[in-house]
Amino acid sequence: MNAQSNHPSNDTTDPQFLGPEAGQQAGGGQARELGDMRTILQAALTQPGVMNQAYRAFHNYSIGNQMLAALQLLGKGLPLAPIASFNAWREKGRFVKKGEKALSLFMPISVKRRADKDAPADSAEAGEGGTFSLFMLRPNWFSLNQTEGDEFTAESVTPAWDAVTAMAALDIVEEPFRQLLGNRLGYASARTIGISPLNPLKHKTRFHEMAHVVLGHTAIADMQDDETLTRQIEEAEAEGVAYLLCALLDLPGQAESRFYIQGWLHGCSLPEKSAKRIFGAADRIMKAGQPAQH
Ligand SMILES: [Zn+2]
What is the DSSP string of 62-126? Predict the structure, then answer.
């Protein structure tokens, strides 16, 4: 956490805070590395419309996988159409066309823990019997357009999200705004959030404050209001979640969000771990706010 590790940034329009490894790599022909969550986050920040389209096509998948599928299909020049495994298509009476290459998505892979080794830091929570889940890219999916056979009608789902449902599911309470010192638009403390009635983008701030709670930032009592790197990263993480949800739900505030993320990071790069946390929290908040099924 020293200042030397920060990447200078002099361009305020590109999300360079994701670091030089994300997206274009200097001198590299194969610029984008699949599976780097910062690359996916960068794509989400620079192509906001894709998130909303990807949700409509792939709503059953995690937000990271939705973007991964969308980027690979767009890279192949294919439309965002339903995806399924080879066998799942066969069950629908469709067959993968000759020569089609599979799309890769993250899959939880169960790994046995070795007695002498701890689980890697980025693995999911430990499972039963000394195993843990690791998310690995697996080339198992094909889009409708890579298959042929029986007629198949694509289902498109319009993204919807309900704040009351989400907060109940996540055990978060929104209290009447308490006027505190300064010009705050919102706050989060333990599992309580407050949104200023004067806030012009209440929905964005609500996502942001909920993200602080979901990411565990408010679990530590008396969060210091200093400008440490930790605080910068936490604010960038919370706003990253707010951005993803605004883009996914096609809500206003996306440009403000990009500006805010950049401001908090002062040109330092966001760690890969944070990019993963941003997608994970956005997933949890999105799922928690799904209106009841009829
Ligand atoms: Zn914040």
Answer: -HHHHHHHHHHHHHTT-----EEEHHHHHHTTEEEPTTPPPEEEEEEEEEEPPTT-PPPTTS--B
CA of 61 to the centre of ligand 1 (A): 28
Count the helices and strands in the chain (H runs, E runs).
9, 8
- Residue 195 to residue 179: CA distance in whole angstroms: 10
How close is the Cα of 33 to the center of ligand 1, in Å?
Answer: 30
Ligand 1 center to 236 CA (angstroms): 8
Encode pLDDT of 161-201 as tens digits.
Answer: 999 999 999 999 999 999 776 778 999 999 999 999 999 99
pLDDT tens per residue across span 34-90: 778 998 998 899 888 999 999 999 999 999 999 999 999 999 999 999 999 999 999
Q: Ligand 1 centroid vs 155 CA: distance in angstroms?
A: 37
Average pLDDT, the chain: 83
Token pair 């499972």 is found at 127
How far apart, in Å, are the Cα atoms of 108 and each of 54, 111, 136, 219, 254? 21, 9, 6, 27, 31
**3-state class (DSSP) for residue 30:** coil
